[in-house]
Amino acid sequence: MAVTTTPSPFAASLAAEIGQLKRDRVYKRLNYLETPQGPRVRMEGRGEILILSSNNYLGLCAEPSVVQAGVAGLQAYGAGTSSVRFICGTYAIHRTLEAELARFVGTEASLSFGSAWNANEGLTASVVGEGDVVLSDALNHASIIDSMRLAKAITKCTTAVYRHGDMDDLVSKLESARGARRTIIWTDGVFSMEGSIAKLPSILEIARRFGAIVAVDDSHATGVIGETGRGTPEHCGVLGDVDVITSTLGKALGGAAGGFVAGPESLCDMLTQRSRPQLFSNALPPTVAASALAAVQFVTNHPERVRTLRENTRYFREQITEAGFSPLAGETPIVPIIVGETATAIQMSDLLLAQGVFVTGFGYPVVPQGQARVRCQLSAAHTRADLDEAIAAFKTVGRKVGILK
Ligand SMILES: *Cc1c(COP(=O)(O)O)cnc(C)c1O
Questions:
Q1: How far apart are CA 32 and CA 25, in angstroms?
Q2: 192 among known catalytic residues
Q3: Ligand 1 neighbourhood includes 217 CB (under 6 angstroms)
Q4: I need a surface site. Which of 124, 135, 261, 384 has the fewest CB within 10 A?
Q5: Does the beta carbon of 117 lie inside 6 Å of ligand 1?
Q6: Other C-beta atoms within 10 Å of 86: how many?
Q7: Is residue 220 annotated as a catalytic residue, yes or no?
Q8: Burial classification of residue 345, based on how many CB atoms lie within 10 Å of its CB (0-12 exposed, 13-18 middle, 19 or more buried)
Q9: Catalytic residue among 141, 220, 235, 302, which?
Q10: 29-58+303-400: CATH topology
Q11: What is d(CA 297, CA 112) in angstroms, rounded to the nearest whole number?
């Protein structure tokens, strides 16, 4: 039973800070779902709603073979490893999954982590030292940013940020880095707030010129873009050329949790020796490893699922534009619709939810002032009827908030 007492000064000061978040209208409320992730779910207190804000790009969260593999993994190996990997926490399913992931993303080897966050954090600090340089695109994911902060604090490496997608700025940062023992260029493959794609061919060409290493976080791209879903390198025609790829198992590949680093065998071996999330945190639960393995096998055997996602994306982008909205142009299933003010984005998202359509509004400071947006994400599991319903709701709400005439 919950205990009620007078709040401690600690609890009271936190409550005051939360009060301020609410007054600033940046307080996040959690929506509880009662059914598996899918195009339509039952949301506590709201009934059935249509989701256009999930990373369930291929609809694999509830795919029977993925769920069944998880159940079988649980029965075969039990709930978990109860140890970090090098002590007694590795199962054969981890090795099978890692080999399959490496094959899928086009590298020699891969190493799984409890999350992509851990993979990124484990990678940066383990491969640089004093005098090394790490460069980052300005819009990189928070986990990359934090991995660089940590690496800098631990190893005294140098870090710098280049303007988003700006190759001239990247070159100028590399010129200032000349003489470093190792230089790493870190980029998201697909940028989650814009839906834009990293210019990998240019980045690779520049990196080769300067002897730099390219690390791509493909979390929003693995299973999502490229002819057969193998991510940004496949999309850009450079499959097999990127030095290091990191990604998540928590989005298109089953959506449970987990992440990985993929690259040369020696890199994965070094991370097993050195990276702190490997050395001091448990492996993926075997049930999650089994589901993720089934998800990779599913994408490999069903490239048509990736094609459906591409067709849904094209249809939605076309229809929402025709309806009078201004989505950021692009090819990925992340479709941000710019509405201007943060308050408008929040209001739209609330009104859409009242209409049974779940999309998230993002405002300042997550995105620049005046560029608040509602971000739609498509899934291969959406039917045309789902998408038409979403477009109709957008039209109604767009008129209500005064974006459409
Ligand atoms: C979602 C995401 C992550 C975090 O993934 P987890 O496996 O949930 O930790 C890391 N990087 C990028 C680019 C992401 O989009």
A1: 20
A2: yes
A3: yes
A4: 384
A5: yes
A6: 12
A7: yes
A8: buried
A9: 220
A10: Aspartate Aminotransferase, domain 1 (3.90.1150)
A11: 16
- What would the mean pLDDT of 118-139 be, rounded to a whole number? 97
Q: Which amino acid is at 122?
A: G
Residue among 118, 197, 219, 360 whose CB has most ligand 1 atoms within 8 A, to mutate: 219
What stretches of 307-402 adopt beta strand conformation (E)? 334-340, 357-358, 360-362, 372-377
pLDDT at 26: 79
Ligand 1 pocket, 233 CB below 6 A?
no
Does a cis peptide bond (omega within 30 degrees of 0) precede residue 36?
no
Catalytic, out of 94, 235, 251, 382: 251
For residue 250 and ligand 1, the question of a CB distance below 6 A is answered with: yes
Distance CA 127, CA 70 (A): 33
pLDDT digits (tens, 9 = 90+) for 329-386: 999 999 999 999 988 999 999 999 999 999 999 988 888 889 999 999 999 999 999 9
Which tens digit of pLDDT belongs to each residue from 68-118?
A: 999 999 999 999 989 999 999 999 999 999 999 999 999 999 999 999 999
Candidates 110, 112, 192, 247; catalytic one = 192
Residue for token digits 């492996």? 283
Taking the centre of ligand 1 as the mean of its atom positions, its distance from the CA of residue 194, in whole angstroms, is 15
Provide CB contacts within 8 A for 40, sequence distance 6+: 48, 49, 50, 51, 386
Specify whether domain 64-301 bears CATH 3.40.640.10.
yes
DSSP tag of 164: T
Distance CA 150, CA 186 (A): 15
Quick check: pTM over 0.85? yes
* Rg of the chain on CA atoms, in Å: 22
The DSSP output letter for 285 is P
- Residue 104 tokens, joined: 């899928």
pLDDT at residue 130 is higher than 70: yes
Cα(219) to ligand 1 centroid in Å equals: 6
Question: Ligand 1: distance of its center to the CA of 70 in Å?
Answer: 21
DSSP 8-state class, residue 326: -
Tell me the domain boundaries of the chain: 29-58+303-400, 64-301
From first CA to last CA, the distance across the chain in angstroms is 53
Q: Which atom of ligand 1 is nearest to the CA of 217?
A: 13
